[in-house]
Amino acid sequence: MRKTSEFYTGVMDITPLAMGVAVYGVAFGLLAAQAQMSSLQTAMMGLFVFAGGSQIVATERLVADAGAMAAITAGVALNLRMLLMTAALRDDLKGRPLWQILLGAHYTTDENWALLYAKRAKGVDVGYWYFIGGGAFIMLIWIMSTVAGVSFASLVPEPKSIGVDFAFTAAFIAILCSLWRGKEDLFPWIISISIAVLLASLAPIETSWALVIGGVVGALSAGVLSGKSRDYDLESVGG
């Protein structure tokens, strides 16, 4: 009974974020149409790949005639951040059947991951099925909105003309704001942004790789700072 209740609560709580996903889902659908993808192909990509950021980046490369290999590389590079996110879920996935572990990994998105930890930070007892409920609903909205975008492509042939191409960026800005915990996050965020900007500007690598490397370095710096903080607290208690 708790599984059903948690799943349903996850769906309800993720709904406001899912509406934001729908906006850049439509934007992706318009982009997919430019890449000559049909509604069925777009839906299947959403079902089996289900990685909004990576889908958008990979499809942008295809539209820009960068080639399939460049598209795949860019998509994989951007999606590497999920390794850090799923690693944080190890306690929730530990001891579960393989199908539940795979389902949890597949349903991991920025939105339901952020929501799960935001709820826990407020002292709310939520777990695996809450996370799955949010992920399942996000997938449903994503597929429906991307297919709608493909259908609307004939009416809006140029997304930039109405600013729809910025929807994806705006959604990520909103997610970042929800993850901000306070001044302790400032240094890791500065490190992450600085590394990403420098690599994107000066290094001969894909922008997606610059973002991933910046994110990893920022996460490592946060881990180091967190470890030092705990050591200091223990020394203070011991003293």
Topology:
Elements: H1 2-34, H2 39-48, H3 52-63, H4 68-79, H5 81-88, H6 90-93, H7 98-106, H8 110-121, H9 128-152, H10 167-179, H11 186-202, H12 207-238
Helix pairs in contact: 1-3, 1-9, 2-9, 3-4, 4-12, 8-9, 11-12
Structure description:
This protein has 239 residues and is mostly helical. Helix content is 78%, strand content 0%. The chain has 12 helices and no strands. The protein has helices at residues 2-34, 39-48, 52-63, 68-79, 81-88, 90-93, 98-106, 110-121, 128-152, 167-179, 186-202, 207-238. It is globular. It starts with a helix and ends with a helix.
Summarize the structure.
This protein has helices at 2-34, 39-48, 52-63, 68-79, 81-88, 90-93, 98-106, 110-121, 128-152, 167-179, 186-202, 207-238.
Put simply, the count of helices is 12
The proportion of strand residues reads: under 5%
Give the low-confidence spans.
230-237
Evaluate the radius of gyration. Answer: 19 Å
User: What is the β-strand count?
Assistant: 0
Task: Please give the alpha-carbon distance between the first and last residues.
Answer: 49 Å
Computed structural class: mainly alpha
SSE succession: HHHHHHHHHHHH
Amount of helix: over 70%
Please state the average pLDDT score: 79
Overall form: globular
Main sheet specs: none
The oligomeric state of the chains shown is: single chain
